[in-house]
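Dear colleague,

Following up on yesterday's call, I've attached the two folding results inline so they're easy to grep. Please treat them as preliminary; we haven't cross-checked anything against experimental data yet. The first protein's sequence and structure tokens come first.
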Amino acid sequence: TTGFAGFARLPEPKKRDHDLVALVAEFIDTYREAWPAVDLRIQPSGPIRAGVDRDLLRQVLVNLCDNAAQAGAQSITVETTKDTSNVVVEVADDGGGVDAAVATRLFEPYATTRDLGQGMGLGLAISKKVLLDHGGDIELAATSSAGTIFRLTLPRTSDTQKEATS
């Protein structure tokens, strides 16, 4: 009930200009001990700026890392890149992958592969809403028995600044 209520009351993002590489590095330093059996790391790159609500983005990363750990991942790598209009954050793990029966509805509320009482299936639905509210998106980029990659896209800072000033 708490999870559903939280989903219904997600705040509007308070977007600020951040270096996502630094934000991800800080996330890893802060949360590394939350999953002691997982090697949590960042793929190094130069500064990449985007307008994000750091707390909401942190929640998305927690959801993805927690799911990966639950799926048996021993390693999670976060890589941040950019293209002409977006910042791309990929979260890759070496867990057991996403079951094909769930993959098509993965971002819907209550879609879960966990046992009863082990989660409500709201984490990825919340993550999707957070990214959409930022003007971005999240997708299942790849999955197999060797692991999973989730791709988050966010508008680059210049796009966010135009939105904030208009």
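Below is the second protein, in the same order (sequence, then structure):
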Amino acid sequence: MLNFPSIFEVHTVHLFGRNFQTESIFTVVASVIIMFVLQFFMKKTKMGMAMRAAALDPVAAKACGINVNVATGMAWGWAACTAALAGVMMGPLYGVFSTLGSQIGTKGFAAAVIGGYGNFVGSIVGGLILGLLETLTSGYISSNYRDIFSYSILLLFLFVRPWGLFNERAIKN
């Protein structure tokens, strides 16, 4: 594991009766801002709507005059930028190692499934549920069982409610 350089000087801030590092606060605030920007971009701009259309049905999107290759490239660009920002924010907190991306990606997939795949708000709620479950498991049982409980709730959702908490479209189909 390699240490990633800190973005800020490491200070401790006392909030709500708890101590937090400035990098942790920055990571949470930056993540919330990025989520709102992505939500706005995907729902309110022509390019965001074109990207969603191209992802949903490339043939129909092409028939409507959308350049599917450009929309796909933009999606990959946004994904790369978001991953780079996540790496810069998470690196100083956890260090950098070869399986960091796969661990974060697996938890992100679990959060998306729990919340409703393809639903921004659902993914955020799924991530909060997963994070709370992991924190409570680590605090009250053992951190060794954190991943077991996370993947157990993922399996529970896959068996009981595979469309997630907030994905209404999947219910209608």
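For the second protein, one point worth flagging: The helical segments are 22-44, 46-56, 58-63, 68-94, 100-115, 120-140, 146-160, 168-172.

Best wishes,
A.L.
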